[in-house]
From TrEMBL:
Name of the protein described by the UniProt record: Copper transport outer membrane protein, MctB
Annotated organism of origin: Nocardiopsis flavescens
Annotated Basic and acidic residues bias: 183-193, 346-356
Matches recorded under InterPro entries: MctB
Biased composition range(s): Acidic residues: 173-182
GO biological process entries: copper ion homeostasis
C-alpha cells in the first residue's frame, strides 16, 4: 500500500510540475515570443515589398529599353541585310508573333523575307526518325555523301540545299552584277530540284512552306520553341537536341544563320542551351520576342554572314548583350549612279521594296 501511494504521489507531482511549468512558461515567454514572431513577419513583409518594387523598376527599365531600341532601330539596322533574302524557319512551338516581328526587322535592315518554313511536330517525333532519314536520302542528289551522317543532319543538309541560293541558280546574263531570275540547267543535270525537295518534305507532313523560298535564300533565322510551349514535356531534351543538329546542318548551306529564342530557352534543356552547349558555330540570341532582342537577332545574323557568329543576350556563356562593334552596313550589289544619297533615300528604298 505504501508503494502504491508513493507512485501515485510521484505521478501527481510530475503532472503538477508540468502544469506549473507550462503556465509559467507561456506567461513568461508569451510576450517575447509574440514580439519575435511579429518582428520577423514585419521584416519578411518589408523584404517582399522591396523585391516587388525592384521588379516593378526592372519592368519599367526593360519597357524603356524596348522603346529606346524601337526609336534607334532604323539607325542600328540600316542596310545590315541589304539585298539579302532571308528565310524564317520556325521550330515546333515557336511563337508566330515573334516570327512576324523578326520579319519586320529583317525588312527594316534592308533585307527581304523569302518565305517561311514551319517544322512540324511530326518532324521531331521519334517514331518518324526512320521516315525522315529515308526521305532525306530520297531527295539527295548525292546519297553516298550522307553516309554516316545523323538523320537530322541529313534533313538539315537537304532542306538547306533546297533553300540556299547557289551561284549557278540565278544567272547574270547582262553582267550588271545582279541576277536576272533565270535558272541554268545545273540543278537538272545533277538531279537536284530545290522546289521538288521542299515539296517532298511538305507532302511527307514534316514541314509547311509559306511563300516560294526554294533556291532564293541567302540567310536564315531559326526561331526556337517558346519555353512555355515545351514546359513539362518529358522529351524536351531529345527534341531540342535533334533541332540543334538540324540547325547546324542548315547553317552549313546558307551564308548566315541566327538561332533566336526567349531567355528561358537558354537554360536547362532549352534549344539555345543545347546549341550553346555544343559550341554552335552559328549566332544565337536569347531575347527574341521583345524589340531589343529582335534587333540584336538581326545584328547577330549580319555578323554571322561576315563569318563570326556569336552568342548574345543575357543567358550564360554569351559573348555580350549585342555584337560589339556593330557589323558594317552592306554595300549595294550594283554601283550607285551617284555617290551622294538623295533626300528621302531610306523611305524610297522601303517604298520600292513594298511595291515589289
Amino acid at each position: 500500500m505504501i508503494d502504491f501511494r508513493y507512485h501515485l504521489v510521484s505521478i501527481i507531482a510530475v503532472f503538477l510540475a508540468l502544469t506549473v511549468g507550462l503556465v509559467l512558461g507561456t506567461t513568461m515567454l508569451q510576450d517575447p515570443l509574440l514580439n519575435t514572431l511579429q518582428n520577423e513577419t514585419a521584416d519578411l513583409r518589408g523584404q517582399t515589398e522591396d523585391l516587388r518594387t525592384e521588379r516593378d523598376v526592372a519592368d519599367r527599365v526593360n519597357a524603356g529599353g524596348d522603346q529606346l531600341a524601337d526609336a534607334a532601330a532604323e539607325d542600328l539596322l540600316h542596310d545590315r541585310l541589304r539585298d539579302l533574302d532571308v528565310v524564317l524557319v520556325q521550330a515546333p512551338g515557336a511563337d508566330a508573333d515573334t516570327a512576324a516581328a523578326l520579319g519586320d526587322r529583317i525588312e527594316e535592315a534592308g533585307g527581304s523575307v523569302a518565305g517561311r518554313v514551319e517544322v512540324r511536330s511530326e518532324f521531331v517525333d521519334p517514331a518518324n526518325t526512320a521516315f525522315v532519314d529515308e526521305l532525306s536520302l530520297q531527295v539527295s542528289a548525292d546519297p553516298g555523301g550522307l553516309e554516316g551522317v545523323g538523320t537530322y543532319e541529313k534533313a538539315g543538309t537537304e532542306i538547306g540545299r533546297a533553300l540556299a541560293r547557289g551561284p549557278e541558280r540565278d544567272t547574270d546574263a547582262d553582267g550588271d552584277g545582279e541576277g536576272d531570275g533565270e535558272k541554268d540547267d545545273k540543278d537538272e543535270k545533277d538531279g537536284h530540284d530545290p522546289a521538288a525537295t521542299l515539296a517532298t518534305f511538305v507532302e511527307g507532313g514534316l514541314v509547311s512552306v509559306h511563300g516560294d523560298p526554294a533556291g532564293t535564300v541567302d540567310a536564315a533565322v531559326v526561331l526556337a520553341p517558346a519555353s512555355a510551349e515545351q514546359a513539362g514535356h518529358e522529351d524536351r531534351e531529345a527534341v531540342n537536341t535533334v533541332l540543334a543538329a538540324f540547325t547546324a546542318a542548315l547553317h552549313g548551306r546558307v551564308e548566315g544563320l541566327v538561332l533566336a529564342g526567349d531567355v528561358p530557352s537558354s537554360r536547362g534543356h532549352g534549344m539555345l542551351a543545347r546549341a550553346r552547349a555544343e559550341e554552335a558555330v552559328f549566332a544565337t540570341v536569347d531575347m527574341a520576342g521583345r524589340p531589343m532582342g529582335d534587333i540584336v537577332a538581326v545584328l547577330a545574323l549580319a555578323e554571322d554572314i561576315g563569318g563570326d557568329g556569336g552568342a548574345y543576350g543575357v543567358g550564360e556563356g554569351v559573348r555580350g548583350f549585342m555584337p560589339d562593334p556593330l557589323p558594317e552596313p552592306r554595300e549595294s550589289a550594283s554601283p550607285s549612279p551617284s555617290p551622294s544619297p538623295s533626300p528621302g533615300g531610306d523611305e524610297a528604298r522601303r517604298a520600292s521594296r513594298e511595291g515589289e
